[in-house]
Amino acid sequence: MDSTTSDPPAAPPAAPPAGPAGPDASAPAPLRGTAADGLKIVIVGGFGVGKTTMVGSVSEIRPLSTEEVMTRAGEGVDEADAVPAKTTTTVAFDFGRITLNDRQVLYLFGAPGQQRFWFLWDQLFGGSLGAVVLVDTRRIEDSWYAIDRLEHHRMPFVVAVNRFGERGPSLPKVRAALDLDEHVPLVECDARLRESSKNVLIELVRHLTALHERPAREDAR
Amino acid sequence: MSGRRHEREDPDRYFTITGGRRDASLDLVALVVAEIGPLPGMSSEQVRILRLCRDHPVAVVELSAHLALPVSVVRILLRDMLADGRISVRHPVSAPEPEELPDLETLKQVLVGLHNL
């Protein structure tokens, strides 16, 4: 089972989601008045892998945090009060943004990788340009599920090994451990560093561009 | 629209704010702009939204974070405000369709923006 701690236990509704910056920590850098086109990239990974760190290292605002609360009906019976169960799921996620130009602003979302999050994927992150799977080589298995779901959603992605400045298994070993298709880019990064995180995002955009040139996207179809 | 689906799953407070409805049509990164100032009789949430979006666009997800309300609740509030002409919304235009790639021009713009970081 994946760690569930990147989803805080359902916080009291009145409490503001506790993000690194807090909800009203400071006057947020406002968007340009001409901003009209929001874009999304999602960074997926297990707890503690550095998603928020990566968002924060490239974002023009301190990462903010919010949540979505969703209910699915009819999943067994709630034994506590013996009524048809509705499962309430709270998914917390962080985000930041990068103003690309006068019109376009790119939002980066740090999304939890564990199972209970994925039924919200389309609603929250449908329409994303692509995804980054952030991997901690000490917990490679945390990434298996995310990669599987991204493939299922036909969301193009790159995989970035967050080294936190340390050494670890070589990329070929990581690729093998992830059973990662040869065509999926696999890069190293240090999510604390802006240049490094920026390069991961650039790698993703290049990958997306390259996919345009693959006439038969058999892997992604 | 589908209106009154009484799904009382959310805490009562959310139910009160939204009348128990759901709406997923506003994207997380749709940009909201206030069209009027706060008026007497508006809910405190509506007043806060109008103040936040008064001088510049604010994304749905940023409103959610600043108001400390779940995204789905903010969407409902915004839908009402949109219907009443209190806000306008700039929907994302470059998002790829499901299972499609982003278009090359969009990718080029993103690449330029990232290089400029």
Explain what you see:
Chain A: Residues 21-30 have a biased composition (Low complexity). Chain A: Keywords: GTP-binding, Hydrolase, Nucleotide-binding. The complex is a heterodimer of chains A (221) and B (117). Chain A has 221 residues and is of the alpha/beta class. Helices cover 24% and strands 30% of the residues of chain A. Chain A is built from five helices and seven strands; from the N terminus they run βαβββαβαβαβα. A seven-stranded mixed beta sheet of chain A has the order 2-3-4-1-5-6-7, with helices on both faces. In chain A, a hairpin with a 4-residue loop joins β2 and β3. With 117 residues, chain B is mainly α. Chain B has a single domain (12-115), classed as Winged helix-like DNA-binding domain superfamily/Winged helix DNA-binding domain (Arc Repressor Mutant, subunit A, Orthogonal Bundle), CATH 1.10.10. In chain B, strands 2-1-3 form a three-stranded antiparallel beta sheet. In chain B, α3 packs across α4. Chain B starts with 11 loop residues before the first helix and ends with a helix. Mean pLDDT of chain B is 85; it is low at 1-11. At the A-B interface, β1, β2, β3, β4 and α2 of A face β2, α3, α4 and α5 of B.
